[in-house]
Amino acid sequence: MLLLGPPGVGKTHLAFGLGIAATEAGYRTYFTSAQDLVRNLQMSHLEGRWGSKMRTYTGPSVLVIDELGYLPMDQTSAHWIFEVVTRRYERGSIVLTSNRGFTEWGQVFADALVASAILDRLLHHADGDQRPRQELPHACARTTRRGSPREIGGGFLGRRRVRASGGISGAGSKAIGSDQGSEAMNGGVKEVGPML
């Protein structure tokens, strides 16, 4: 599922709610920012433990990647995002938030070819708005070949354990109800806001 729109319209809130709903449905879920994902994979590569860190992102049924495009990426960073998306392609679901429209992803990744390959994998099984990709100013697209988002995710959301009550336990965390992402999860497509 892709949640695209300008800052402040609730993309992260929806993504977090979807992650909690998936976890409560019994699926393993992991939440990370795009920058943390890239930084962690790069560090683990330098330390020689890339394979085990990659499993952190490919193992859960649902991976929530927040804030893709807020900061531009160099080619190495784009490579790490590409690797995660490719390894999860048709194997696990991705919920991704970005403040950039698809036409800007070539600039975000510093390589239009990599951006196109990432979008092809993310949008291959997209539901909802069927306009050509270059015309999509914002959208939310389910990325699994399985029919239901409920076939994804259970256990951790980031490094915090999700309690059965729908709250999150961890230092500095706040409780978030499980019904916040239900409309988007059940509908498959959720427009977050207009792109500027």
Label the structural class. alpha/beta
Oligomer: single chain
Beta strands, count = 7
Strand content of the residues, in percent?
5-15%
- Report the total helices: 7
User: What is the alpha-carbon Rg in Å?
Assistant: 16 Å
How many structurally independent domains?
Answer: 1
CATH class: Alpha Beta
- In one word, what is the shape? globular
Question: Helical proportion?
Answer: 25-40%
What does this protein look like?
- It is a single chain.
- The protein has 196 residues and is an alpha/beta fold.
- Helix content is 37%, strand content 14%.
- The chain has a single domain, classed as P-loop containing nucleotide triphosphate hydrolases (Rossmann fold, 3-Layer(aba) Sandwich).
- It has a four-stranded parallel sheet with strand order 1-4-3-2, with helices on both faces. It has a three-stranded antiparallel sheet with strand order 5-6-7.
- The longest helix has 14 residues.
- 39% of the residues are buried.
Summarize this entry quickly.
With 196 residues, the chain is of the alpha/beta class.
Using brief descriptors, characterize the structure shown.
37% helix, single chain, three-stranded antiparallel beta sheet, alpha/beta, 7 strands, 7 helices, four-stranded parallel beta sheet, globular, 196 residues, Rossmann fold
